Amino acid sequence: MIIDSNPPLLDHYKALLDHSSTLQTAECDGHFDGVAAEECQLPMIDLNGLKSDEALERVECAKAISKAASEWGFFQVVNHGISLELVKKMRKEQTKLFEAPFEDKATSRLLNNSYRWGTPTATRPSQFSWSEAFHIPLTKVSEEDCYGDFISLREPTEEFAAAMSKLARSLAGVLAENLGHRRQVFEEICDESTCFLRLNRYPACAVSSEIFGLVPHTDSGFLTILRQDHVGGLQLMKDYKWVSVKPNPEALIVNIGDLFQAWSNDVFKSVEHRVMTNKMERYSIAYFLCPSYDSLIGSCREPSVYRKFTFRQYRSQVQEDVKKMGYKVGLSRFLLQDESTHTTLKAMKTM
Q1: What's the whole-model pTM score?
Q2: Which of 123, 159, 201, 291 has a 20 to 30 A CA-CA distance from 18?
């Protein structure tokens, strides 16, 4: 099989391999455990329950959402209001975009100059992501100038982003209400300039089945909503082992981010997840619900597990850690307890 050179992922990966001596050594350095992940069935929630005329059905649906957010950190939703027709339009235009020559994607400043590929900060294979993506702030999706020769992507992207934003805010409101707060709390602090849509492509990879399409991580925002295709590859950490998420063509996947875990005082869980490569290319679209950069994130109940911090402070700390250590430390940086947690986490990362 010819390895896809658009983008030139193999060149970068080979350079990391040479630096690390062998693939076997590199695999021991990351989250590879040599055991195939078992397939799991995420909690499935029918959102028609939130619109029911029966109060009990609405309450039960809201409880199911909160239970999944607490026990899994991930769940699936159906009857979410995003049509299959719109999904197909997005896939068609997304494919056209990623099929463009690498030079065009990298230099033409498409979609707010948001094109990214691989992992520029990687120093070894375990830190490398075999993927490419466009990260589009919601404030930019309506601007014609962002799309260049791909103007046909604008209309479905606008519609898709608006629908995902509405859904994310609705789910965040349900979760807030179940903790005794107003549904509108996230409407007031979330900002379109920091919320964004990410168009992902994971090229086919014949090098190894143990290469990350996306390295293990937690999401930094409040909520992420994901539309994945039929190929699969998403895995999450459950009960201290990796499990694979089976694609469902009718469902969207929702996961809790770090800020929601902090705001809920650890009631809801931001769970580590990753994407593994495949011999088939994979596409997905993710929507990230985030607050304004200066929003103060505090616990919704006391005693608080975390000290207060802004989204800007959190992002800066994550970027600093990735630059210095090659990985994200995340919420443990903001714990009110002593610094021993950081030492323990660092030791675990290097085992």
Answers
A1: 0.91
A2: 201
